[in-house]
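Supplementary Text 2. Reproducibility record for the structural model of the 208-residue chain.

All settings were left at their defaults, and a single model was retained for analysis rather than an ensemble. We include the record here because the model underlies the residue-level annotations in Supplementary Table 4.
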Amino acid sequence: MAARYVVTIERASSGQRRDKPQSHTWYFYRDAERVALLKGNMDEVWYRDAHDRISFERVFHDDARVVGYSTGELATLQVNADWAALSRFVDPAELAQLKLVSKQGRGREAQWHLRGRVGKEQLNVVWLPALELPQRLTRHVAGASTVQMQLVATAKSPQPDWPVVGEKSANYLHIDAADFGDMDYDPVVRKSEALDMRLGWRASHKHD
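Retained model, structure tokens:
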């Protein structure tokens, strides 16, 4: 399954001036061995091998770097990667906390409208059970940001003009996340650590 989303991000700004909403195109690909989210300047790719071992890569295109998280490193970070959740673009545990507002259509045309609060976020989802993907998803954090994702195209595999996972990054420098402790000085390591902290994978710590 391949899907293309238009993502609009609106951040709350201080004072009277409102920041202009930013628009991005994201691509989501999934198959039995790989789930990838391509966000333009960064890719997030999960891999599953024949023994159901899961690993993860972050690709930073602006820095021409790939940061790899082995199965062992994910275990060290106590990251419990759920393949079913990764494959659905929205964690089923989040969907389970939402209230069903309405159902429309049947079979492949079915759409479920779900709404509710998950942590600090207010979620509003139009879910497509046949594709196990959101048609539309809005995440709103009061006083902070609103992120809206709108599904604009789906296909059984990526279209010819869609980006290919790993094509641009074939010659990038690779960093192993297990080596972060020796690379505190590296800006890409700091960037990846900051993303880890946001996901709750690492405790916050100050650099010298």
